[in-house]
């Protein structure tokens, strides 16, 4: 039996990594791609057509009108603006609001003002009261100092009440014809010196202002509304004449 072969005591060859081999290995490895350089964000275009551009411009106008009215109401409450300046600016904003809101509704871009406020997170209670609910400046609804004499204010109030009453008797029903007359009657009534703020006739006219302002300009009052408005106007006129005969009552 032959003995097993003797194992050599010579160690296995050593693998020596030289600088040359490392350089070759590094050069044969594919470099990782560099991350792309950040690009500058361009302007975001909201519209593709002229119609869409007009829609966004009208929406931005409506937003600006509401915010401006809120600041104007705050300035008036804090006595930072005179009643005359406030009335002029507020009347202009109300007109701009009605024009813009009507255009958006007719184009189908505005479902309701409440949805607009919710979507754009607008919290403007003073502006909504002025633009949406009343539609007239605060100086029309509440007593303010008038530069004209009390005799002129009384005469204008009587004239506006009679004119509005005649319109109702002539069966004028359109909101855009009745609302201006009612607003003028309310404006002259609140300028009369000594008229108590709880005067029932003024409160009734204010309620009708809210009703008319919630309607469209092309809407018409029905028979019941015409009859009720005529009744309330007659009572307001009678109460006003009673106040003139006995202002200290």
State the gist of this model:
This protein has helices spanning 19-28, 50-77, 83-106, 113-119, 125-134, 138-141, 150-169, 175-190, 200-213, 223-245. The chain is mainly α and 249 residues long.
Set out the fold topology.
Elements: H1 19-28, H2 50-77, H3 83-106, H4 113-119, H5 125-134, H6 138-141, H7 150-169, H8 175-190, H9 200-213, H10 223-245
Description:
It is found in: Endosome. By secondary structure, this protein is mostly helical. The chain has 2 domains: 50-140, Vps28 N-terminal domain (de novo design (two linked rop proteins), Up-down Bundle); 148-245, Four Helix Bundle (Hemerythrin (Met), subunit A) (Up-down Bundle). Helices cover 63% and strands 0% of the residues. The chain has 10 helices and no strands.
Estimate nothing, just give the exact number of structural domains. Answer: 2
Distance between the termini: 147 Å
Mean pLDDT: 83
Globally, the shape reads globular
What is the alpha-carbon Rg in Å? Answer: 38 Å
Beta strands, count: 0
Spell the H/E element sequence.
HHHHHHHHHH
User: CATH class of the largest domain, anyone?
Assistant: Mainly Alpha
Helix content: 55-70%
Q: Briefly note the structural class of the backbone.
A: mainly alpha
Number of helix segments?
10
Hey, roughly how much beta strand do the residues contain?
Answer: under 5%
CATH topology of the largest domain: Four Helix Bundle (Hemerythrin (Met), subunit A)
Poorly predicted ranges: 14-29
Largest sheet: none
Q: What do we call the CATH homologous superfamily of the largest domain?
A: Vps28 C-terminal domain
CATH architecture of the largest domain: Up-down Bundle
